[in-house]
Amino acid sequence: MNKAIGLDVGTKTIGVALSDAMGWTAQGLETLRINEQEGYLGLDRLQEIIDEHHVNVAVIGLPKNMNNTVGPRGEASIHFSEVLKAACPHLEIVMWDERLSTVAAERSLLEADVSRKKRKAVIDKMAAVFILQGYLNSKS
């Protein structure tokens, strides 16, 4: 089975999730601090994770508008995927419709009664889990 990484790309953070060895479940790994405006996209750390965990597939959340068009955030995710592909040519890149992943992550954290401060700290990582889990479910 190919090991997969799920990425929820924002302007200031990237939520990172990894699949288990069997490709059944996604677990949140970490939230990377980035600065999209300054062009710092956390690629060094991402490459470390990809190499360390022998990742073959990167599933990147593609935020679409509800009418299925791609807006500025979606274009930023596509640009990020191109930069990642250039840095890791061996990596298969999958763009995954993530329209409801952050909403689902927020809802599950609210249901678990996680405080606002803690939610803010883990929301991107949780969104990455939802993105990757959706992809894994589609493969099985």
Automatic annotation (TrEMBL):
<dbReference type="InterPro" id="IPR005227">
    <property type="entry name" value="YqgF"/>
</dbReference>
<dbReference type="InterPro" id="IPR037027">
    <property type="entry name" value="YqgF/RNaseH-like_dom_sf"/>
</dbReference>
<keyword id="KW-0540">Nuclease</keyword>
<keyword id="KW-0690">Ribosome biogenesis</keyword>
<dbReference type="GO" id="GO:0005829">
    <property type="term" value="C:cytosol"/>
</dbReference>
<dbReference type="GO" id="GO:0004518">
    <property type="term" value="F:nuclease activity"/>
</dbReference>
<dbReference type="InterPro" id="IPR006641">
    <property type="entry name" value="YqgF/RNaseH-like_dom"/>
</dbReference>
<comment type="function">
    <text>Could be a nuclease involved in processing of the 5'-end of pre-16S rRNA.</text>
</comment>
<dbReference type="GO" id="GO:0016788">
    <property type="term" value="F:hydrolase activity, acting on ester bonds"/>
</dbReference>
<dbReference type="GO" id="GO:0000967">
    <property type="term" value="P:rRNA 5'-end processing"/>
</dbReference>
<dbReference type="InterPro" id="IPR012337">
    <property type="entry name" value="RNaseH-like_sf"/>
</dbReference>
<feature type="domain" description="YqgF/RNase H-like">
    <location>
        <begin position="2"/>
        <end position="105"/>
    </location>
</feature>
<keyword id="KW-0378">Hydrolase</keyword>
<protein>
    <recommendedName>
        <fullName>Putative pre-16S rRNA nuclease</fullName>
        <ecNumber>3.1.-.-</ecNumber>
    </recommendedName>
</protein>
<keyword id="KW-0963">Cytoplasm</keyword>
<comment type="similarity">
    <text>Belongs to the YqgF HJR family.</text>
</comment>
<dbReference type="Pfam" id="PF03652">
    <property type="entry name" value="RuvX"/>
</dbReference>
